[in-house]
Amino acid sequence: QVQLVESGGGSVQAGGSLRLPCAVSGYISSSNCMAWLRQAPGKERERVARIYTGDGSTFYADSVKGRFTISRDAAKNTLYLQINILKPENTAMYYCAAGSRRQVWSWRCERLDTYAYWGQGTQVTISS
Q1: Hey, what's the torsion of the CAs at 122, 23, 114, 40, to 10 degrees?
Q2: What's the chain's average pLDDT?
Q3: Whose CB among 18, 28, 97, 120 lies 3.0–4.6 Å from 115's, allowing a Cys bridge?
Q4: If 0-12 CB within 10 Å is exposed, 13-18 middle and 19+ buried, where does residue 102 land?
Q5: What's the pLDDT band for 102 if we cut at 50, 70, 90?
Q6: Percentage of the chain surpassing pLDDT 90?
Q7: pLDDT at site 46
Q8: First CA to last CA across the chain, in angstroms?
C-alpha cells in the first residue's frame, strides 16, 4: 500500500552533480522519519542523510557533509537527495526509506528499525 521509488541515478563524471528523487505513494504520517542510504559492493549499508518531517531537521554522515543535501517536497510527496562534487567513492546503490503510517517521534529516526518502507534503489556510478 505504501511504495517508495527512487530514480535519477546513472553514470556521471567526477565533479558533476545528481539529484535523486524518491516518490512516495500511499499514506505515511506527516510527523515521520525519511532517509537516504547507500551500499557499495562488498561494503556495509551506510546511512547517508535523514530528515524528520515534523520540523524539517536533518542529519548527515560526516563523509557527505557539505556536498549532499536531503530535502522534501510535501506537495509532491517526494524526497530528494542532491549530490554535488561527485567523487568515485560515491559510487553505490542509493536507497530511500520512510518510517511509518503512524506518528513517529524524532528521536527514533536514528534507528534503522524505525523505517518500515524501502525503495528498490537507484545505481549511481561515478567515473574519473
Answers
A1: 10
A2: 95
A3: 97
A4: exposed
A5: confident
A6: 89
A7: 95
A8: 41
